[in-house]
Design brief:
The protein is α+β, with helices and mostly antiparallel strands and 605 residues long. The chain has four domains: 175 residues, Immunoglobulin-like (Sandwich), CATH 2.60.40.3650; 100 residues, Orthogonal Bundle (Neutral Protease, domain 2), CATH 1.10.390.10; 181 residues, Neutral Protease Domain 2 (Neutral Protease, domain 2, Orthogonal Bundle); 74 residues, PDZ domain (Pdz3 Domain, Roll). 27% of the residues lie in helices and 25% in strands. The protein contains 15 helices and 27 strands. The strands form seven sheets. A seven-stranded mixed beta sheet has the order 5-4-8-2-1-11-13. A hairpin with a 2-residue loop joins strand 15 and strand 16. Helix 2 packs parallel to helix 3, helix 5 crosses helix 8 and helix 9 packs across helix 10. The longest helix is centred in the middle third of the chain and has 19 residues. The chain is globular, with a radius of gyration of 27 Å.
């Protein structure tokens, strides 16, 4: 039974015309336990001797070539030839990894059938089992080059009558379980959940919203919906309204998942099923909601020029993901605070955690922010044991730069303007008409709001690896960064040891640290410290028996070879930083803080 929004107006069925083919997908799942979607594409009114089909290699919002074609199997094509009663197979060949080509000389109507293996539960892939079916358009459907703007019907065939369908695709009048996308981009942008999931309806600012939830856990839906409503209202106020007629939150409750993927009228969220009781974990979920919902403006409509038109066949390069994702990350902490979900102390605590992550990532000294965005396709989603040494996330550093920009703008304009005004101007200039912005245009908008030239700021923050001037801007608002007291910390080695399958394994070695200079490598098994057995649990306490400057003998297995390394210890380094008020702030600093967060500086001491 379809569970589309009742407020949605069904569209009338499509009919064949002389100028364009009619495309109709059927998605079945007769044996969901096999994890195989059965997909059929019917093409009517075809007028070419050859039909090219391509499946995307990536999906918007997740900047990695994921090779969705690797899950396609059992491809075939057939048509009714002449007066024959049975369909005849059509010849086809695979031209490249994601490109199939069918010979269609003299053929106007044909059927393509294939199956897609779906057993990866993430927000950007497909998942099918005996409890539900979930799919993303980019990971399931072919597109026909040149016909991406063609309307596409989709009929979904659930395996059982009690399975419902949740999607933002509008239903087709008088065709059960059938929906229509006006173009391929929309088909990709409307994920589908099929199953016995729970559906919760609520209204915000006169528009219908849904939570469609698969899985069980300890989520308090009444509280989640109440807080989600607050988030929607705060973000709508920032941008001046809601740019959709309805919105769907698809939530998958899994054993240990985390993630989100934004769409124009929906988002998919994956969260730990028992991650809602503790306040910090609940706050993290609401930050995820705020992040993905914020994206319906920033990146889905306000987006870099390189993403104005999607090329599903290859990487789409841009240096501006720091703004699309990083600025969104800055607001995903701020929005729940403005919504009253947590207080100013909690906000500063959460922001301190983000600053700590940034300042304890060595890769910030290696990879500039613009390069991090440009190289997302080969680095961010392909982390390895050395990633923290040679890269920095454009989410994280972009968030830090957005914080500094917000404080800078507020300071230069006596708090008459802020980063909010940048977003509103981008929305008016680019977002409403979905015109992509260039890096130069983005800087121009920010400068126009700040009322000053920012060439030096952008060069320093985006194109160099120099440290960000946190205290310069925080001081203007009565704050400073306080590193933790390391007096009682063990000396610094630069290596992280964890217990793994009964072995003490080196999981990370900081570049140019004492451990690296001694020859310790990722994957080594630690056996003893100064000839005495040591475990990961004991590691920190054992090091406290020594002083900076001392040399310890570390016994390890390096690629099954027994070795002893001499590690010269260094002074301990901070592993956390906290935003704290200045001891004696001026009246101006106190006023700036109050204008920024709406509370007195004394309230967060």
């Amino acid at each position: 039974m379809p569970d589309a929004f009742t407020e949605t107006t069904p569209v009338r069925p499509l009919s064949t015309n002389a100028t364009a083919a009619v495309l109709h997908y059927t998605v079945a799942m007769p044996r969901p336990e096999t994890h195989l979607f059965e997909v059929t594409l019917q093409v009517a009114g075809w007028r070419s001797p050859r039909l090219d089909l391509k499946i995307p290699v990536w999906t918007p919002g997740s900047y990695l070539v994921r090779e969705y074609a690797r899950h396609v199997q059992d491809f075939s094509a057939a048509a009714i030839l002449g007066d024959r009663a049975k369909p005849e197979k059509l010849p086809w060949q695979k031209v490249s990894k994601n490109h199939w080509q069918i010979q269609t000389e003299g053929i106007s109507d044909l059927t393509v059938h294939y199956r897609v293996f779906a057993n990866e539960l993430t927000v950007r892939t497909n998942h099918l089992d005996s409890t539900h079916g979930y799919f993303n358009g980019a990971a399931l459907f072919f597109y026909i080059p040149g016909l991406q703007q063609q309307p596409i019907r989709v009929t979904i065939v659930p395996p059982r009558a009690e399975w419902r369908i949740s999607t933002t695709l509008p239903p087709v009048l008088d065709e059960p379980h059938t929906f229509v996308a006006p173009d391929f981009d929309t088909l990709v942008d409307c994920p589908v959940e099929v199953g016995e999931h729970a559906v919760y309806h609520f209204e915000v600012l006169g528009k219908p919203h849904q939570y469609a939830i698969w899985g069980t856990g300890n989520a308090d839906l009444e509280r989640i919906i109440a807080d989600t409503r607050k988030i929607i209202e705060v973000e709508a106020e920032l941008f001046g309204g809601l740019p959709y007629e309805r919105y769907l939150f698809l939530l998958h409750l899994s054993s240990q998942g985390f993630g989100g993927l934004e769409h124009k009228n929906s988002c998919t969220l994956n969260y730990s099923r028992f991650g809602f009781r503790a306040s910090d974990r609940y706050n993290r979920f609401m930050q995820l909601v705020a992040h993905e919902f914020f994206h319906l403006w920033n990146v889905k409509r306000i987006r870099p020029k390189a993403l104005e038109t999607f090329d599903y066949d290859k990487e789409n390069y841009t240096p501006s993901l720091w703004f699309s994702e990083g600025t969104t990350s800055y607001y995903d902490l701020m929005i729940p605070y403005r919504a009253g979900i947590y207080d100013a102390k909690t906000y500063l605590k959460e922001l301190s955690k983000e600053i700590t992550r940034f300042l304890t990532t060595p890769g910030r000294n290696v990879q500039p922010l613009a390069e991090s965005s440009f190289d997302a396709w080969i680095k961010l989603y392909r982390r390895d044991a050395n990633s923290d040494n040679n890269q920095i996330s454009y989410y994280l550093k972009g968030e830090m730069v957005s914080l500094l920009l917000d404080l800078l703008i507020r300071d230069r304009t006596q708090n008459h303007h802020s980063l909010d005004d940048v977003l509103r101007q981008l929305w008016e200039q680019f977002g409403k008409d979905e015109i992509g912005f260039t890096p130069e245009q983005l800087q121009q908008v920010i400068e126009s709001v700040a009322g000053t030239n920012l060439d030096a700021f952008f060069y320093h923050c985006l194109y160099t690896t120099e440290e960000l001037p946190f205290d310069t801007y925080l001081d203007l608002f009565g704050l400073r960064l306080q590193p933790e007291d390391v007096t009682h910390h063990p000396p610094f080695t630069g290596m992280t040891v964890k217990t793994e399958h009964g072995r003490e394994v080196v999981k990370f070695v900081i570049y140019d640290s004492p451990a690296q200079r001694a020859g310790v490598d990722i994957g080594d098994e630690v056996l003893a410290l100064n000839s005495l057995r040591v475990t990961a649990e004991q590691w920190g306490d054992r090091l406290k028996d020594y002083q900076p400057g001392d040399t310890i003998e570390l016994t390890i297995f390096h690629q099954d070879e027994l070795k002893t390394c001499s590690v010269q210890l260094e002074a301990p380094r901070p592993t956390s930083y906290q935003l704290v008020p200045l001891a004696q702030p001026t009246e101006q600093q106190q006023q700036n803080f109050s204008d920024w967060l709406g509370v007195d500086l004394a309230d967060v001491r």
